[in-house]
Amino acid sequence: MPTIRQCGLGWLSLFMAWPVFAAGPAVWGEGMMVKVRPDDTTPGSATEVQLTAARNEFVSFQVALHGGDTGLQGVRARLPTMEGPATLMGPDVTLYRQAYLTTRQTSESWQAVGRWPDGLVPDTDEIAREARNAFPFDVPANEARAIWVDVHVPQDAPPGEYTGTVTVEGEGGFLRQVTAKLTVVDAVMPSTSSLSTAFLLSPVQVCRAHMGRDDCSASELQPLLARYEQLALEHRLTLPGLFPREPWRPSWEDFDATWGPFLDGTAPTRLPGARMTRLEYEGPLTPDGLRNFTEHLRSRGWLDRAYVQIGDEPPYQSSFSQVKAAGAMVRQLAPDLRTMLTTNSLQLKNHSLEPLVDIVVPLVNHLDGTEPDFVGDQTATYTAFLSRPGTELWTYQSCMSHGCPPGSSMPENLPGAGWPSYGVDRSAAKARAMEWLTFLHGGTGELYYETAGMLPTAWSDQYHFNGNGDGTLFYPGTPSAIGGLTHVPVASLRMKLVRQGMQDYEWLKAVSDAGDPDFARGVARELIPTAWQVPDDGAAFDAARLRLIQRYQELTRGNPAAPVMGTVPDEAMAQRKQSVPGTYGQVGGCGAGPGDSAAAAAGLLWAFWMLSGARRARRRLPAREP
């Protein structure tokens, strides 16, 4: 007979192996600043998320799932309404299944390759309002998945407390719920961003991704491009040059019918009245083309938002002589059209470019950098340039955030710090930081060189310029990829984070305009000490935003004289009225003054045409890296 001790050990062995201890699937609420990766996400337990927003602001959160030891099949989710002083529903509440991009090369040497959440497949898409194939999906055993939730607070929604319940169901009777509690504050965020943007998009890449070829007709392409513009505006971004470049001049009747609503604020966006903040001239660089363009835009009241690039990152993409020729020609033939140049204050001064440039766009690495000539905050070096009416300082980030040459890496990019980045395999905080830095440096706009660089292969491969996702913020929403019948653009998770940064900018500006710019700058600088010290702590961004909201309420509550969010204070308005392109007089170098004959510009036209050809060639990006 076994002894009692032997029996006890036998029961203990049986008890420890009993399957009741197998971990089951888990569902929990998560903020927007955590990237839920499949293989290294620990199950959470939160059943509630807390949100705060102004009216006409988007807020986002996630519902995360873990398969446990058994996995979960047939997952569906729904959030019918957010209930409070009003009911938020329909287009204002959108659920997405997060798709994963598998990286095969890393953007930073210390990272590991693997699956990153990025493409957001909608349950019902924002543009055509068609049901897509976000649900159902499976969660494999020992892996995580996530659902993204967008809530847009309508302009007329009363302030107060709103509550909604996300119900998650799976096969076998599985059911879990996550509660979202939303506080709507008494402020209205403007539909048109206070920060101008020019996020470029290559039409040929849209043609390739949706039609499988390069020769789409205008009738095929323009409806698609209009959908991309609509989705961009709903993320508070502008795609500035989507109209066909050839043949030129366009049928202005067709142009106005397609793009007029986006420029006038009558397009059917969820942000009512949202307007494009910029429009780029990309037609033939000839006297007739420039004059025809400016005359039409002036007649429609759009000229103040138009610009032309007179070069790109000289001396690398354009020579300084080409830039000077281009600038002089535009000054002579289209003096009311603003000129833009991607360069820095050092090059502006050394090559006497200041009189030819209205919008200077330095790399963030040159605005607050670590390398010789750009060490520390360089904002003061733009003071003289910005003293001339009509000038602006914009910002942009590029592959310089991670290192452009193959195999390179920026030494500042350490875990927990580094440059802002729109890379797939960087932290959520890196994609939200750029607009905070633009505010800190007094910028009035942001340029991004491309949003569809790898669009044809976006679902499987976005490695471009030594980084994953650099130059690609959209996914092609083809029926074969997301279901439905209509081709639409699909937003990336990074695009949502850029939108959040744009909305953060509105809060920074609102606090500043309401009378406490030092507080706004202090919060931003505490969050991001330098441009190369962007933290990976997403919670710190959320906390900083809440401090701004609280301060705005303190400044405006019971004070009818306080500027309302989205309006321009009287002093700033007066300055803006003066800041329009004026008479520039005679330009030096190879430029021709207003009184010179047309023949004197012939050499400039040839040089500028060569420059524009190089610029157009650069925009025709390949479908994938060679």
Automatic annotation (TrEMBL):
The keyword Transferase does not apply. Residues 290-509 form the Glycoside hydrolase 123 catalytic domain. Residues 1-22 form the signal peptide. InterPro entries: GH123_cat, Glyco_hydro_123_N_2. Residues 45-169 form the Glycoside hydrolase 123 N-terminal domain. Keywords: Signal. The keyword Signal applies. Pfam families: GH123_cat (PF13320), Glyco_hydro_123_N_2 (PF22680). This is DUF4091 domain-containing protein. It comes from Corallococcus carmarthensis.
